[in-house]
Amino acid sequence: MTTPGKPRPLSLTPAHVAKVDRAIADGGPGPGAVLHSDADYDEWVARMIRSHPAPGSPTMLFAYGSLIWRPEIEHVGETVGVARGWHRSFCFRMIRFRGTPEQPGLMMALDRGGQCRGVLYELPDDDLEGQFGKLFRREFTYKPPNSMPRWIKVETASGPVPALAFVMNRASPLYAGRLSLEAVAEVLACACGHVGSGAEYLLNTVAHLEARGIRDRNLWRLQALVAECIERNNGTAHANETAERLMIRRPV
């Protein structure tokens, strides 16, 4: 782990990302997609508040990816914590947002196994329903949900605390399974959707983790591989080949 405030230079740069990012129209949910309704989200909110493992205590949110650099929620405090039994993994296949059906991307999710160092946000307790509703609408759109809200245990310097986290739903048809870093790098080096590219997502995540003194060895290696892929080729042949592989449902 590096010292906060003295981040180590990354191999992946905004110049690399600029070679991948391009204007892409939103193709919409796609045929056969079933979206969550307001009633569905309200039910999820009620379920998670009802199952709060420590009612009356501060509600913590565990952030491991984009919630660190774009939380979009109010919080009254933050600290670093470790979630054991979970790890960051680009195992969520994206056919919208940061990918397309023709060139699927990959999004990072919290998958089973290993451990993950991230940021714990303390949420204000005056509008927990509103905060959860905003979070859930951001984190999952389709049925079945790909990122499932779940209470997990996170270790901190002051001891373990329960925290809300979004973990990968392995029953989702968008679950890509375990992929090698090299295969992930090929996808992130060329996939892009209407909200941006996978390379941009990776760069933002690694840079903000590094600024907090959090070094994820797999992500650090991945950002170097993505930079190499972008420099080595224009992504076309690799994208087509990898997209075909990702369209095949991998066994859970």
TrEMBL record:
It comes from the Bacteria. It holds the Pfam family ChaC. InterPro entries: ChaC, GGCT-like, GGCT-like_sf. Keywords: Lyase, Transferase. GO terms for biological process: glutathione catabolic process. Its EC number is 4.3.2.7. GO terms for cellular component: cytoplasm. GO terms for molecular function: glutathione specific gamma-glutamylcyclotransferase activity; transferase activity. This is glutathione-specific gamma-glutamylcyclotransferase. It comes from Sinorhizobium mexicanum.
